Amino acid sequence: MASTIDPDQVTAIQAVVDRVSSYQDGATEGTVESELRKGLDEAGITLGDHQVSALVAAIEADAGDADAGDVLA
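Predicted structure:
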């Protein structure tokens, strides 16, 4: 999986994760995923559903400290 995501994309994905993480506390169910997908679309990055789900789970579990590089490795 990681071989298809270059370092520049991981940096862009991390920026989206950080943005979504900053306001995920108290967000309604589904908000984190929809905002993550929106941010990835804006950055021109396409991830598989399983990758997005993994990032959402990390954001929700790690209280905003999710590391995109670790999640997608």
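Summary: Residues 7-22 form the longest helix (16 residues).
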